[in-house]
Design brief:
With 126 residues, the chain is mostly beta strands. It contains 2 helices and 6 strands, in the order ββββαββα.
Length: 126
């Protein structure tokens, strides 16, 4: 199923090399959904095999960054260590857009003054 979703990265993206030697970009996105009147976090594990994305995006995809992701979304089942069957969402990314910066980086960035010069309202000719 093809879909789009937005959310915040749960950790920094990482480049992973597969057994065949190709590289992929791996990251997880927290998408908030409402179920039964409660807000819940749904984690989507994302992989991007596009060569043009791997090296370029890894520097921008940091924990807390808000992104919009499009791609093929799959529901995976696996057996957990305790023997129970679990499910997870995985997205094979076909598009990604950065929507906002890293909240922790924004908080630590120095504040700059406005580039707009101050003016006196008496100087307006109308």
């Amino acid at each position: 199923m093809y879909g789009s979703f937005s959310g915040n990265l749960g950790r920094d993206a990482e480049i992973v090399t597969t057994k065949s030697g190709s590289q992929m970009l791996k990251f997880s996105v927290a998408d908030e959904v409402y179920a039964n009147g409660k807000k819940e976090t749904q984690w989507i594990n994302c992989v991007d095999f596009r060569k043009s994305s791997v090296e370029k995006l890894v520097q921008y995809l940091k924990k807390g960054t808000t992104v919009m992701v499009s791609g093929e979304v799959l529901l995976n089942s696996y057996e957990a260590k305790d023997g129970t069957t679990k499910t997870s969402l995985q997205c094979s990314v076909t598009g990604i857009r950065l929507l906002g910066g890293n909240k922790s980086a924004e908080a630590s960035a120095p504040k700059t003054s406005s580039a707009t010069p101050a003016f006196d309202s008496d100087e307006i000719p109308f």
